[in-house]
Amino acid sequence: MDVKQSWGFISISIGIVSLLWASISLSGMVGQEHVLLEMGSYIHASSTDLSNTNYADKVMAAERHKNFVVLLSGLVMALLGSIMIKGRFNKF
Asked: Could you list the residue ranges that cross the membrane (predicted)?
């Protein structure tokens, strides 16, 4: 196996792990959103100056952005790895 194909397999492996992590994180965001909304309403009800009306929205937007970056990088890594090992399985 040459260097290009071994880096292709490594890239595909990293891409698949990244895709799995991003999909699990994105599916768990429903629960995170519920918890953050409950925390935001609790802080708002306590009438302190720590309250921000958009607290939950800002935190969820940051988490969503991070997870989409991980998802897109996983897709790019898997695609790059598949291009690197193109034609490898045609030999069998």
From this structure: 7-30, 68-85
**Structural domains of the chain, count:** 1
Q: How far apart are CA 57 and CA 70, in angstroms?
A: 20
Evaluate whether residue 21 is within a structural domain.
yes
Determine which helix (DSSP H) or strand (DSSP E) holds 21, and give its type and residue range. helix 3-27
CA distance linking residue 42 with residue 31, whole number of Å: 17
Q: Which pTM value belongs to this model? A: 0.65
pLDDT in tens, 21-71: 888 887 777 777 777 777 766 666 665 555 555 666 777 788 888 888 888
The two three-digit tokens of residue 29, written as one number:
């965001």
Within a domain: 92: no
